[in-house]
Amino acid sequence: MTRETHPGAARELTYYEARAEAVAQILAADDRVFVLGGDMSTPFNPPNTLEEQFPDRFMTPPIAELGAAGFGIGAAMAGNRPIVSLYTASFLYEAWPQVVNEAANVAYMSNGRVGAGVVFHIVHGLRGAGAAQHSASPQAMLWNVPGLKLALPSSPYDVKGLLTTAVADGNPVMFVDHLLLANVRGPVPEDLYAIPFGVADVKRRGEDVTIVATSLLVQRALDAAKILAADGISVEVVDPRTLVPLDEATILGSVRKTGRVVIADECPLRAGVAAELSALITEGAWDSLKAAPRRVARLDVPVPFSPPLEEYIAPTTDKIVAAARATIGQTVVA
Amino acid sequence: MLPALSREVLLEAYSRVLLMRRFDECVVRLRDQGVFNGHYHVYFGQEVTGAAACLTASPDDYIFTTHRNHGHLLARGVDPAPMLAEILGRETGTNGGIAGTFHLSVPEKNILHTSAVVGGIMPIAVGMAFGLRRRKQPGVVMAIFGEGSLQEGAFHEAIQMAALTRPPVVFLIENNDAEAEVGKKVGPYKYLKAAPVKDLGDYPRIHSVPNVRVEGTDFKAVHEAVAAAMDAARRGDGPTFIESRMFRWPGQFGSWPRLVQGPFEPRYAWDESSVDPLYRTWWIERDPVVRMTRELLEAGLLSRAEAEGMAAEATRRVVDAEAFARQSPFPPPSAAAEHVFVGSGANV
């Protein structure tokens, strides 16, 4: 699927407006759905405009992420489709046993007879001043847990369509937002629509270098592509949109075409999302590679507070540009 | 004592108690023979609590249990043959060999998900109860746990949410270590094993959740307490916390139980001389199966011959279950890659 195929997409919304519209339309369309946690109508904190519109569909849990996560799993087993909105992804760690040791195992342990159709919504990433305990990007940890689906929208169009699919799925879905996507603008159809999981989106067509990027880094990859285009380097940006399931064919197809690849994801470099994608590409498109895959990720340190330090560890547009240049031998990145 | 229920109902409950006992005896033997490899958490000494409690649950109600789940499933009327097959990892098991002893579940009996993390399903049980009420579905959720689960944070977050949302849920705590006074199980380097509270009822009390303590080998006491709690939940009066206390079986050696003095014999209920004096306290004063046998005899609901006959019938069912399990094939290796998710689409 490419951007050109988006139907009826003349209207533009910000990412958070698209997300709020999706929640409102999902709530209106499906009375199984309720939200436990933040109301998802604003980039971050209340005012709770959606809660005013749907007063009996929002529950504010006690500060008990473990309890709230399990509560969502149980409510799902009873035929509801809860969205447990934990917001700051670091707080997912408080709920960790329920997510990775209960929700992820429900279908398998029941031999496929019981599903836990719960969406866990988290907001990951370096956000500016989040410091060590409010900046987690746990997508690699989550990807290492069989039994969880994993969606990382990167645009207003995608957040609406992927949330629709997440709620409908019937399995535990980790819905991973990024705070810095909140004000990104883009075309969004007014009616509710679903983007199927496991279908990557080629966000920009190009011939020389593929950049596979997730979440906010898709936006940075698109910025990098513009910078590189000015130098005559044609970049293709591939957004997997979901890591579980993963559209391997689109990723490998792009790399086979360009022969060069940069993988950009915000979780720490070591054993990260970029590492796994790099292995996939190396094994699956080895004969086509003209250069070693390059990873752009977060430095392997806890997150510092001071702005220049946070900037230093971040996978920035500049680092993506430098990595792309390195794949074509223009410069060497350390 | 026995509750004022029909002879038919009481004898059916007794047959399940006997089945639980014979089932556990069988698994201990299979483990000793090397047929079964792994942990097994026996239910010896707790059978009457499980039978009396599950008798109060209608088919619409849900039961959540733990690694110590086998007695609860049998009390719910699950066939022992696929249960034993599951414990032996066979394709014909309740869960196709995927779950094993830790995670037996039977969705058609409203036993959906069994967690071996001791407090793990407490929040799920509360959410399930809330979810049923939200969907206007019938059913009360009975969550049955050991007292160790109260040491996990999951319980405390769950009962807090139960107190706030007041869904139809009953917490039944099987305290199988009643002899060790809570808070006194203290020895060198063992102090962390003991909860600091003297009374487990303090936990629900701080959340204003009603709590009851019953003697877990007393069929009538358990039945009345759980029935009242289930009725309260059904009426919309919210959660109840029940502590059922029973004694630790002398064959309890952690994960490696031993059948001290062999299998249960009904005659222990009327012939004390048949009991090994070393285990007299257990068989005569504490074992709920002996106690229930004695009470049925004293009430004139059962003859000695009938008791022997029912015990033999339970033995026969477990022998048949064992034969079924041992003759069943293991699942094909490819089954390991199935059902990571429900529904269609990508599986990994």
Number of strands of chain B: 5
Structural class of chain B: alpha/beta
Number of strands of chain A: 14
Radius of gyration of chain B: 20 Å
Q: How much of the polypeptide of chain A forms β-strand, as a percent range? A: 15-25%
Low-confidence blocks of residues of chain A: none
- The N- and C-terminal alpha carbons of chain B lie at a distance of 53 Å
Question: How much helix, percentage-wise, in residues of chain A?
Answer: 25-40%
Overall form of chain B:
globular
How many alpha or pi helices of chain A?
A: 12
Shape of chain A: globular
Quick overview:
The complex is a heterodimer of chains A (334) and B (348). By secondary structure, chain A is α/β, with parallel strands linked by helices. Helix content of chain A is 37%, strand content 20%.
Description:
The complex is a heterodimer of chains A (334) and B (348). Chain A has 334 residues and is α/β, with parallel strands linked by helices. Chain A has 12 helices and 14 strands. Chain A has a 7-stranded mixed sheet with strand order 3-2-4-5-7-6-12, with helices on both faces. A 5-stranded mixed sheet of chain A has the order 9-11-10-13-14, with helices on both faces. In chain A, helix 1 packs parallel to helix 7 (156-169), helix 3 runs parallel beside helix 4 and helix 8 (216-230) crosses helix 12. The model of chain A has no long low-confidence stretch (mean pLDDT 94). Chain B is an alpha/beta fold. Chain B contains 11 helices and 5 strands. Chain B is globular and about 55 Å long. Helix content of chain B is 40%, strand content 8%. Chain B has a 5-stranded parallel sheet with strand order 1-2-3-5-4. In chain B, helix 1 (7-32) runs antiparallel to helix 10 and helix 5 runs parallel beside helix 6 (153-165). Classes of the chains: A alpha/beta (334), B alpha/beta (348). Chains A and B meet through helix 3, helix 4 and helix 5 of A and helix 5 and helix 6 of B.
